[in-house]
Amino acid sequence: MGNTLQKLGQNHPESIQEHELPVTELPDESQPFTCEICIEPMLLPNKKFKNQNRCVHPFCIDCMVKYITVKLEDNVGEIPCPSLNCNQFLDPISCRDLVGPQLFVKWSDVLCESSVLTLAQCYCPNRNCSVLILDECGENAKRSQCPYCKRNFCFQCKLPWHAGFQCQESRELRDRNDVVFGVLAELNKWKRCPQCRHFVQLIEGCKIVKCRCGANFCYNCGRRVYQHWCGCDNASRFCIGVFQWFSGIFVILAILFLIWDFHSTKRSKN
């Protein structure tokens, strides 16, 4: 049977060639290589640096460790592959055993610092705390609480929380009585006039109040208004929408009445 198959293969070589599949030769990692950094031939294949198979450029481990060390001294956390026209980055986890624990810790610190720099940050104004606090919410934070000492502070001016006062107001002008009054105003939700900065208390009635200086403002949001409504909440926006809707209907009816009156006058003259 084996002789028969051999004869068939010898008699029909073209039939075998038609059904042969192309074979792609993969690089043999057991072969010696030449490092592209030090241009030294490496006879031991285990000296070749592997970037977690992200790229297959021939670099020796010693050169890559020196390369990583230099980059970390420049505070570069995302270290690119040293090969030209390569967009891959080195993976710190896969390089952990190669660079050693000390260099790996430094690499981790550089990556953490680079990520922290993109976030808004401040230090707790409490002298007994002074920890670094990050704004991870990505919003315009103002009143915040230190997660360590649990004291409130202003994230904008980096000072202890100034209840009832704005950031731009000088700290020297706020004595102990002013701070106590500001806390009281905040607890009672008193609003300050946007023009004269006096506190106003609304007991009942419309949220559009008039200060003694003559300025009208919304007691809900504290914004100055020049009409008797403010669109700072859903109820106000609904009322404004209904008013605009009725105004539009009135205008349309007025136009239709004028058109009807014009045609009626024209027919009576004819």
From TrEMBL:
<dbReference type="GO" id="GO:0061630">
    <property type="term" value="F:ubiquitin protein ligase activity"/>
</dbReference>
<dbReference type="InterPro" id="IPR017907">
    <property type="entry name" value="Znf_RING_CS"/>
</dbReference>
<dbReference type="InterPro" id="IPR001841">
    <property type="entry name" value="Znf_RING"/>
</dbReference>
<dbReference type="GO" id="GO:0008270">
    <property type="term" value="F:zinc ion binding"/>
</dbReference>
<dbReference type="Pfam" id="PF01485">
    <property type="entry name" value="IBR"/>
</dbReference>
<feature type="transmembrane region" description="Helical">
    <location>
        <begin position="242"/>
        <end position="260"/>
    </location>
</feature>
<dbReference type="GO" id="GO:0016567">
    <property type="term" value="P:protein ubiquitination"/>
</dbReference>
<keyword id="KW-0479">Metal-binding</keyword>
<feature type="domain" description="RING-type">
    <location>
        <begin position="31"/>
        <end position="239"/>
    </location>
</feature>
<comment type="similarity">
    <text>Belongs to the RBR family. Ariadne subfamily.</text>
</comment>
<keyword id="KW-0862">Zinc</keyword>
<dbReference type="InterPro" id="IPR002867">
    <property type="entry name" value="IBR_dom"/>
</dbReference>
<dbReference type="InterPro" id="IPR031127">
    <property type="entry name" value="E3_UB_ligase_RBR"/>
</dbReference>
<dbReference type="InterPro" id="IPR013083">
    <property type="entry name" value="Znf_RING/FYVE/PHD"/>
</dbReference>
<keyword id="KW-1133">Transmembrane helix</keyword>
<keyword id="KW-0808">Transferase</keyword>
<protein>
    <recommendedName>
        <fullName>RBR-type E3 ubiquitin transferase</fullName>
        <ecNumber>2.3.2.31</ecNumber>
    </recommendedName>
</protein>
<keyword id="KW-0833">Ubl conjugation pathway</keyword>
<feature type="domain" description="RING-type">
    <location>
        <begin position="35"/>
        <end position="82"/>
    </location>
</feature>
<keyword id="KW-0472">Membrane</keyword>
<keyword id="KW-0812">Transmembrane</keyword>
<keyword id="KW-0677">Repeat</keyword>
<keyword id="KW-0863">Zinc-finger</keyword>
<comment type="function">
    <text>Might act as an E3 ubiquitin-protein ligase, or as part of E3 complex, which accepts ubiquitin from specific E2 ubiquitin-conjugating enzymes and then transfers it to substrates.</text>
</comment>
<dbReference type="InterPro" id="IPR044066">
    <property type="entry name" value="TRIAD_supradom"/>
</dbReference>
